[in-house]
C-alpha cells in the first residue's frame, strides 16, 4: 500500500489557493492522531518566550511548521526536507501568507545537517523510521540544540507500527526499520549526548481503530482507484465523529503498549 502517491494527489487538490492549503492543514490536524499528540506536547513545552529558534526536521507538507508559526509570531523557524519539490511548494505558500520572514524551508539531509547550539526546540514527526543512520541524526540534533533545548520525536514503535505485521496493507516498504523499541531509542539518544530522554506509547487500541478508520481504509480504496475521491466526503461524514472520540481517548490515556512512540530528550 503506497502512501506518498496519495499524499501527492491530495497536495495537488488542496494547493490551488492558500485558503484550501489552510483547510488541508486543519483536516490533517483533526484526522491524524499524531497531530493531536504533537499539539499537546507543544502546549506542554511552550515556554511563553519570544525570539526562539525552532527546527522542523523533515517538514513534509509543512503542517507542523504552520502550527508552530501561529503559536508565537516572534519564533524563527527553519524547516528542512530532502524533497526539493516540497521545499519549493512550502516556501511559495508561506510567502503567500506573509510568513516568509518567520519561516524558511530549505534542503537538509538530517544525517549531515547541523547548526551548532542554534535551536531551542527541534521537532521530528514520522521521519526517523525512514533514515538508516539514525545515530548520526541524533548526534546532529544534540549538536544543533542550545543548552536547555528540547527534542520531540513522533515515530512508529516496534509493536506493530506502520501495520508491519500486515504484509498486504503495510506502509513498511517506505521505512528502513519496522519501528523503535521504546528502551532502545532512549539509549540511542543518551548515547548521542542527551542528558535526559523519555518515551511513551501512542496509538493504543483506540488510536489504532481511529487510524484504520481515518487513514488506512481510505488510502486502501484510493490505491485501488482515484474514483474513490468522490465518495470520501460521505465516508468521512460517517466515520469522523467516531475518529474524533477515539483520538481524544487515545491522547488522554496512558498505554502499556502502542504502535507509536512520543519521545522527548533534553540537552543540559
Shape: globular
Proportion of residues in helical segments: 40-55%
Which structural category do the helix and sheet elements fall into?
Answer: alpha/beta
CATH superfamily: Vaccinia Virus protein VP39
- Number of helical segments? 9
- Uncertain segments are none
Report the end-to-end length measured between terminal Cα atoms. Answer: 42 Å
CATH class category name = Alpha Beta
How do the strands of the widest beta sheet line up side by side?
3-2-1-4-5-7-6
The largest pleated sheet is described as: 7 strands, mixed
What Rg is obtained from the alpha carbons, in whole angstroms?
18 Å
Return the average pLDDT rounded to an integer: 90
Order of helices and strands: HHHEHEHEEHEHEHHE
Q: Please tally the β strands and state the result.
A: 7
> How much β-strand is present in the residues?
15-25%
Describe what this molecule looks like in 3D.
- With 268 residues, the protein is of the alpha/beta class.
- It has a single domain, classed as Vaccinia Virus protein VP39 (Rossmann fold), CATH 3.40.50.
- Helix content is 45%, strand content 18%.
- The protein is built from nine helices and seven strands.
- The chain has helices at residues 4-14, 18-31, 33-45, 63-71, 84-96, 134-144, 182-191, 205-224, 232-251, and strands at residues 53-57, 76-81, 103-107, 119-125, 145-156, 196-202, 260-266.
- A seven-stranded mixed sheet has the order 3-2-1-4-5-7-6, with helices on both faces.
- Helix 4 (63-71) links the parallel strand 1 and strand 2.
- Helix 2 crosses helix 3 (33-45), helix 3 (33-45) crosses helix 9 (232-251) and helix 8 packs antiparallel against helix 9 (232-251).
- The radius of gyration is 18 Å and the shape is globular.
- The N and C termini lie far apart (42 Å).
- The mean pLDDT is 90.
Amino acid at each position: 500500500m503506497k502512501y506518498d502517491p496519495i499524499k501527492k494527489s491530495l497536495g495537488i487538490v488542496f494547493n490551488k489557493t492558500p485558503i484550501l492549503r489552510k483547510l488541508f492543514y486543519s483536516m490533517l490536524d483533526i484526522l491524524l492522531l499524531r497531530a493531536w499528540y504533537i499539539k499537546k506536547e507543544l502546549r506542554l513545552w511552550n515556554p511563553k518566550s519570544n525570539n526562539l529558534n525552532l527546527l522542523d526536521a523533515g517538514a513534509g507538507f509543512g503542517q507542523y511548521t504552520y502550527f508552530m508559526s501561529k503559536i508565537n509570531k516572534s519564533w524563527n523557524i527553519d524547516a528542512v526536507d530532502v524533497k526539493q519539490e516540497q521545499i519549493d511548494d512550502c516556501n511559495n505558500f508561506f510567502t503567500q501568507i506573509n510568513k516568509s520572514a518567520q519561516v524558511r524551508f530549505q534542503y537538509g539531509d538530517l544525517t549531515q545537517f547541523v547548526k551548532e547550539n542554534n535551536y531551542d526546540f527541534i521537532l521530528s514527526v514520522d521521519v526517523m523510521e525512514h533514515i538508516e543512520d539514525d545515530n548520526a541524526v541524533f548526534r546532529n540534533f544534540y549538536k544543533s540544540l542550545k543548552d536547555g533545548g528540547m527534542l520531540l520525536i513522533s515515530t512508529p514503535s516496534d509493536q506493530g507500527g506502520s501495520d508491519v505485521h500486515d504484509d498486504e496493507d503495510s506502509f513498511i516498504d517506505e521505512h528502513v526499520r519496522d519501528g523503535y523499541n521504546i528502551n532502545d531509542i532512549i539509549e540511542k539518544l543518551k548515547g548521542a549526548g542527551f542528558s535526559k530522554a523519555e518515551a511513551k506509547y501512542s496509538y493504543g487500541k483506540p488510536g489504532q481503530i481511529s487510524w484504520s478508520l481515518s487513514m488506512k481504509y481510505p488510502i486502501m480504496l484510493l490505491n485501488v482507484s482515484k474514483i474513490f475521491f468522490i465518495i470520501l466526503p460521505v465516508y468521512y461524514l460517517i466515520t469522523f465523529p467516531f475518529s474524533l472520540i477515539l483520538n481524544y481517548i487515545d491522547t488522554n490515556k496512558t498505554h502499556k503498549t502502542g504502535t507509536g512512540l512520543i519521545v522527548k530528550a533534553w540537552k543540559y
